[in-house]
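Project channel, design review

CF: Before we commit to the Simiaoa sunii constructs, I'd like one complete example in the thread so the newer folks can see what an input/output pair looks like. Taking Glycosyltransferase RgtA/B/C/D-like domain-containing protein.
RD: sounds good, go ahead.
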Amino acid sequence: MAKKIRNFAAILAISAVVGTMLLVLVFLLPVGPMRRNVEKSVGDMLKSGDEIPEDAFSKYLWKNRETYTDAIMVQNAIERLPDKNAYEHAMWMYHYDLEEDVWTPEDSLKAFCESHENVSNMYLHIYARYWHGYLLYLKPLLLLFSWKHVVWLELAVQIALMIWVLITAIRKQNAGVAAVTLGSFLFMKPLLVMISLTMSVCWILTLLAVEYMLLHHDRLHEKGQYPEFFLIIGILTSYFDFLTYPITTLGIPLCCYFLLENDRAWNNIKKLIGFCASWGIGYAGMWAAKWVIADLTLHTGTIKDAIWSIIGRTEAIGGRPRMNGGFYVIGLNLHEYPVYMGIAAGILAAVAVGLMVMIIVMGRWKNVYAQLLPVVVTAAIPFAWIIAVQHHSALHARFTFRILSVAAAAAITFIVLIVKQAKRSQKS
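CF: and here is what came back for Glycosyltransferase RgtA/B/C/D-like domain-containing protein:
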């Protein structure tokens, strides 16, 4: 335990220092070419009103894609105050907006590009409580490509990663991992994920985590390095994600672990608790490191701002009792799914429940509960997250609903494990 604590502390400290240095370095890049590249496609990427395409498919994409947060990310990438140095930018994360008290990112980005650095009619805001690690790749890409081309490039990366996971899973004779990973993706409105800078971050991190597990599971398991692995996933999620649907980077890899490693019930339950704690320490610890570094070096007041933000994001919605409000917000998130996805989720749940009833009736529960118990607990994680941070989950239900894909991943894992158990029984 003492060794693990030292490892965790060292990894967190190194991550915070390296993360800060990398952000400072990308803020040294010239923003002039980035702005010109953004200007080339800002009109296309922020289409509205009469500019919306006429065909149904394109209209659906433009109507539902997350341009609000994408616009914030892009403007953060091209912002540069002449009287502020790179370190101040990395810590404060300056952002001009047309409004003083509310955010209007799409209109503000358009105005920022059209004004050619004349921001006299705009208000200066800061966004210091996030790391904004996505700038590590977004700024260099915008230096070379337009915003539209960056989105297409990121789409190609996601498709390549999904194919890589599928091929690796088949080669490792564990197609169930691919079924769980790619099957759960269907419950994220996948087309909208693939064409959004914001929504693709957690999905790309999840794919990378699953691929690494497929390639190095034996070493991670034998050397007891899975706690550090989940710690690093939490750190990377905190650093790159914009608080969209982060819990998927924990839940889906957990499901894949249960397919890769068949342990006794209590071992898996203990590992589930340990891995969740490791991810949580990495996620919260890395986030807190940003607040501490910013406050200690520039007296930004980020810690105070972050604490008030946490209080606001986690308060019960609409003055309701917490559990009552939690169930209400779960309903809001479920409502984001189209009817056909609700039917698919119902079928998936019915198959899982039907298999469980069959197992109990046939008296085989003792043979499989060891594998299924941690999967059932994993399925509850997204619901617990929504109840805990229900204000944020209600305010941004249009994208937070994607954490429910963890429950879908758990249901698919449940079915795959039952099928595997049935095959083993037939052989014996």
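RD: helpful, thanks. The longest helix spans residues 265-298.
CF: The CA atoms of residues 267 and 370 lie 9 Å apart.
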